[in-house]
Design brief:
The structure is a homotetramer. By secondary structure, chain A is of the alpha/beta class. Chain A has two domains: about 120 residues, Rossmann fold (3-Layer(aba) Sandwich); about 170 residues, Dihydrodipicolinate Reductase, domain 2. Helix content of chain A is about 30%, strand content about 20%. The first copy, chain A, has eleven helices and 14 strands. Chain A has a seven-stranded parallel beta sheet with strand order 3-2-1-4-5-7-6, sandwiched between helices. In chain A, β1, α1 and β2 form a beta-alpha-beta unit. The radius of gyration of chain A is 20 Å and the shape is globular. The interface between A and B is large, with 49 and 49 residues.
């Protein structure tokens, strides 16, 4: 199968190239990038020197599937003609995640160029909608924060065990802010520093709410989502807090045990989601496609706490995209994604 | 006034020495440290070479006030005879913070050597109990996490505006874990890493609950407190979440405005607490005694969010201790603490 | 004395403001900054909120001395009229360091606007030309790398003990690259990374060569200077290598001992230069005006190795500038510069 | 082929396990570790959870080849009986690198248990002694600093182009100091810090001298080697300085061109050594087995400068060991080592 990457020079684009290079079933045949057009990959991105490709302005024609790593809005413009032309597309940007054109307009301050595709696109969180992904022609790859939060909360939401008031306190490494230099990503500013941002509304919030609501008929989530930037390159930790529905469990002890069983059962067949027995560390997923989840019950208040970690550029972007491609194409779900974490 | 420091070789002890060196009204005349006893400060701690002192096993006799930077349990043992002997003591450890001997036993797994002093000690959060501190002879200096959380929540708790269910999602730099090397503080392990810890109960939890309860008659706080370790040296960020009491405000817009006014008014005369107008960054307090607080209302859920930052070794330890000493001694409250943040 | 800062919004400009705020003998009365003109300092630089100043496009008139923190070329343009107008100027940029207009043209790709001032400016490395600095009206503040290298090498060069072939392998934190965001200073790029740069010629090379040559009649230095960028914010370490002149010492043991004595004697009256007895660490000078120097003799080759560290924004920029101002103005040399290192 | 790892719980041991997991031609069947004996790998090292192995006190019997990641001295004791018993051994420690028992005694303060094996062991720097490695039964895997330095200098030393006075100024990430916690590796101490260490003699010095001397009949290297510790986890940069032999080149321009050609030719068939055209960055080799080398000539002095980078745990330890195993076993040299750099 021949695949292409639009905007290989961003962090998720180059991560896709790295992963696809080792994929046994696909050939990466075309890569684009505006600023570096005309350069060999080896020039623009020396760590990818082994891939003998030239960065172009536009995709070469003969590809079966395309990944878009463009920023929002620009990505929709690039993807729509491809989808209309019958090419499978996995969009790593946010342009096909919200199923409502009004909501898209509100959060992204742009009119969506193809509202019909908003309806038919599939939200590509493989573990929660494997059938949908397998049948999809246009995948909206999840945002990095929602990926971690939705995997952390799905078991209890689907089981109807928690109240709709949910708090997600999220922490991300700097690569999530993209490769373009800015004051926020300046080493001297962000090293030895942490702060909350977008506290009046981050674009991943409506995505989280939409997907939580889809998990259970009648569930109307009321979510506080606060992202924080921390001085590391890769990694996301979502700390999720919720209260159990009244009467859900007889005691905190019983809740603790039941919750562990529920999560273990829910993810028991998954390759990439591991329910762990102590708070996970982001570096335990450095460079691979895993998401580690630790659900527990607060012994003093009886509240639910779930901690989930992943590598924002792999399971939170490029790795999840390849996993989706594998499902869409009938490849083994973990093809190209077997790499162990590089530690320390 | 002559002062001494017990255990100057720990991070809060050496920070005390640094601050006291510039204090116009006190002489640091005696410092102790078990492992480095007999060495000059210049040998053991080259950055303090300007202080011409020798580290001793025990304090020299003639001091008016002593700071103890010993670990818990050991600190109580060292402080009790000093207090009994009429010397003013500021204990930076946790040994006199919990007013209940049973609670102390439960959380610190040791019998307290002087339960009577647990009753008479003053919790030294200057801004919230200035009169108490001024009259104290034994100060229990607050923990770093509680310091930030209590300052963040005091205005709304005292005003009776929030429900007792409170979530404190806290993030700390590594120096809070002390100077003794361990796997957790190993650079190769914690760099490019973040994780929650002590999720089944951190010792700062009962301290937070006790002090919140004291803020308002009948307030029975139910607190989830989750600390996280992040790859920086100094700095604490407490992200606090609560719901307003029903009917507290007519609208989210009104709540937002009222809350800002409340906080501005509450801290308007304070030197070290600043209410800021955007999410604060830990490095804005690097090396000084400030605590920056940003209260806001979530526009989607109407919930209260308060973010507070401070330098865990200054306002969260040594600086707060000097501020307490100033109040106890009739010095200007900011004596020795005027230093601006070093940035970047 | 009234002083002003041109371009307070850069890293050395804001560091100057921080230091001058505590200076007992001067008032900082005017600050400029192009992009932030019209803003209060508290807005543009929250960590300097205590300074009640508004950033202007141009200096207010009545100042006795001006610090310029502009980039090269722009700085000369701003400084020349001030100097001509009789105002004392300390230029932190590189515009008055090279005494030859030809050399300036060659390295800075611009014609110098006042070649006469190139001749009369004083290279402000206080410890090596205290009399010159005291009499100066225009100071060329040293570059950060040269500051460390020249202090490291002055004792042996002045004594005629080394051959002219010198290697300076220098390592700098990221703040030395300035505050403007770029790919090089992007956290995701420079964290967990080190590399040499400007290996075909860094602008600090001619400055080092010029000043080494001035140290001893007939000394014609042949210098290899290689700067490296490392993932920290502040700090410079210069590792200097040279060979002794034939017959300088009878043995390696004698050389080692003599060298230590020479350095101790050379710097024995200096406040800010300390000759230490083991390899110094950059963080031992974090935030203060010290330079730590460790000279030693390689036991296997008999070669000279000297390691020097300083904080590039203090002794390597703003602190050195204030030290120069103190000398020019008859203030105590360490006025405003007494702060101890903040550690860790 | 069945292989084992002695001391899998150290950084190079766990890195070996990670690489061998993906190796197509070998089965990792046995791993040992003193402190974690009895635990499953998933427990002791969660990032290796996919390897279903239990850590034992001693190797299970049936292995064809053993990697030892023990510390020096202990490693020799463990390896000698294996070698005597006919099992191939690759020792990642330093115990078989120095061919002289006297030198070993001098540098490692211990008597070598098998001086005869010091003579017959092969120094496993594959690119410089491929035939030797292929025929070896006991490999002394190179130290991380020497690996980078020897690859950087081999072309000019073998060609007889440089004088014997060589300076190697080396910088290493913290993982090179091993996994045991210490004050030196404490995050709060080493973050935002750099310093030289072992300036009176590092154990990698005699190894560098021995191997440089072997490169050319009559070459008697006089090496200054200075390692520095910097705040990153992985990565080594060796900055090497030397002078050309008199008359080697007609001009600096000719030297520059000739040197580039010489290096390109020397390494043109190598998979893992790349001669690059600008100063390499350590993170360009993060997690893979490459060594990037940039040779150049200083335009002002005509001196040779060579910069080489590698990942100290891969090409500087475990990856080099697997490369050696591949050569010894007739596998493709890059088997198991194809992974691209993870960037950023």
């Amino acid at each position: 199968m021949k695949v292409g990457i639009i905007n290989v020079t961003g962090y998720s684009g180059m991560e896709l190239a790295r992963i696809l290079h080792r994929h046994p079933d696909v050939d990466l045949v075309s890569v684009t990038g505006r600023s570096a057009a005309g350069q060999k990959l080896a020039e623009a991105l020396p760590h990818l020197a082994e891939l003998d490709l030239t960065i172009k302005n536009d995709l070469d024609s003969s590809v079966d599937l395309v990944f878009s790593s463009l920023p929002q809005v620009a990505s929709a413009e690039a993807c729509v003609p491809l989808v209309r032309g019958g090419i499978k597309v996995i969009d790593i940007s946010a342009d096909f995640r919200l199923h409502s054109a009004e909501l898209y307009q509100q959060w992204y301050k742009a009119e969506h160029p193809a509202p019909d595709l908003l309806k038919s696109s599939v939200y590509g969180l493989s573990e929660l909608d494997r059938d949908g992904v397998m049948a999809a022609t246009l995948i909206a790859n999840p945002g990095c924060y929602p990926e971690a939060a939705l995997l952390a909360l799905a078991p209890v939401v689907r089981a109807g065990l928690i109240e709709p008031d949910i708090i997600i306190d999220a922490k991300s490494g700097v690569s999530g802010a993209g490769r373009s230099p800015s004051m926020v990503t300046h080493f001297s500013e962000i090293n030895e520093n942490i702060f909350a941002y977008s506290v009046d509304g981050h674009r991943h919030l409506p995505e989280i709410v939409q997907e939580l609501a889809r998990m259970r008929e009648g569930f109307q989530p009321s979510v506080i989502f606060t992202p924080h930037l921390i001085p590391m390159r890769r990694g996301i930790l979502d700390s999720c807090y919720a209260r159990f529905t009244p009467g859900a469990f007889a005691s905190t002890a019983q809740a603790t045990e039941s919750i562990r069983e529920l999560y273990n059962e829910f993810y028991k067949d998954e390759t990439f989601v591991q329910v762990v027995s102590s708070p996970p560390q982001t570096k335990q997923t450095w460079g691979n496609n895993n998401c580690l989840i630790y659900p527990t019950v607060d012994p003093y208040t009886g509240g639910l706490k779930v901690f989930s970690v992943l590598d924002n550029l792999v399971k939170g972007a490029a790795g999840q995209a390849v996993q989706n491609m594998n499902l869409m194409s009938g490849f083994p779900e973990n093809a190209g994604l077997e790499q162990l974490t590089i530690y320390p």
